[in-house]
Amino acid sequence: FMVVGDLAKKALKLLEEYEYSNFLVGVELPVEAEEREDEFRAKFEVSQGESMRNEFGRLTGKRLAELNGKTVEFKKPEIVVLVDPFAQAVRLAVNPLFVSGRYRKLVRGIPQSKWFCSNCRGKGCEKCNWTGKMYAESVEELIEKPFLEAAGSLKASFHASGREDIDARMLGLGRPFVVEATAPKKRFLDLGKLEDSVNAHAKGKVEVSRLKFADKDAVRRLKRGESTQKEYRVTIEFDDKITVKDLRLLEEKLTNVMIKQQTPRRVLHRRADLMREKYIYDVSVKKLSPRKAEMKVRCQGGLYVKELVSGDEGRTTPNVSELLNNKAKPVKLDVLNVIMED
């Protein structure tokens, strides 16, 4: 235990480049040392008292707290200081920084996440112009870049409550998301300034709002909330002319109804071929021209709205084309709202 002071000083030196308000000390011991301790306890029938691991952790943590003035946190430490008293080695396990918010995607043609090139799998080839990507940018990349710079992190994970199609906009209050910055050197971020940085970087394409510090539980809530209610607006083109009576029929037949959807053909390459049931709470339809209408849908998350319109060759029932006996095609799709508590 003579090395406790030296270990605490080594840890303090490593911690200098990180912002943190709390920490925890963990102890790494050689297997042989713990085996000898167990043998000693058994031989002398020692049933009480601290283990060597716990005692090293407690003493090192106490000494480090005296040196850095920080709080020891047992449940959710920002940084774990791992010490090996036998090798007199110290290393850090820096826990992620989580920031939640909402994003709006203002333009079409941008995927939510980075898509690796299907030809080279991210290595770079002629097909992707040596970028390794199918699309030049994504919502994830546009938001993450300022986050990484602000947090002094090299890597991040982007989590969102569902995703919109590449050719769909995300409007209204936006879609809930969480950025998880790995091993951040800075934690005390000015979120107002960060919001401005992201919006300037992604100007005209993506906007973020309602940024706040979060934790791992926020990511779990996002994933649980993927089936939460969502509101969509879709512009529909018909082969034949439509009447006001047609629109009222759609509202009647598609409100408060369960939709059965076989996985759409367009996503079969990345989704299991399953039958899903999704509920529609409300539908309203407005005529735009003799062969064009706008339909607003409030439904359970996970409903494929494009296929609700087209029918996807019978894989979605009921559907607009089938109900009117008039081939319908979705032209533009917008997500208007993701109904979920922040």
Structural summary, described in words:
This protein is of the alpha+beta class. The protein folds into three domains: 4-94, THUMP fold (2-Layer Sandwich), CATH 3.30.2300; 97-226, Alpha-Beta Plaits, CATH 3.30.70.2510; 228-338, 2-Layer Sandwich (Alpha-Beta Plaits). Helices cover 28% and strands 32% of the residues. The protein has nine helices and 14 strands. Strands 5, 6, 7, 8, 9, 10, 11, 12, 13 and 14 form a ten-stranded mixed beta sheet that branches. A hairpin with a 4-residue loop joins β3 and β4 (89-94). The longest helix has 17 residues, at 52-68. The radius of gyration is 28 Å and the shape is elongated. The two termini are 48 Å apart. The model has no long low-confidence stretch (mean pLDDT 93).
Helix content: 25-40%
* Outline type: elongated
Secondary structure category: alpha+beta
User: What is the percentage of strand-forming residues?
Assistant: 25-35%
Which CATH top level class of the largest domain fits?
Alpha Beta
Major beta-sheet overview: 10 strands, mixed
Per CATH, the architecture of the largest domain is: 2-Layer Sandwich
From N to C, what is the helix and strand string?
HEHHEEEEHEEHEHEHEEEHEHE
Task: Please count the beta strands (DSSP E, at least 2 residues each).
Answer: 14
Low-confidence stretches: none
Per CATH, what is the topology of the largest domain?
Alpha-Beta Plaits
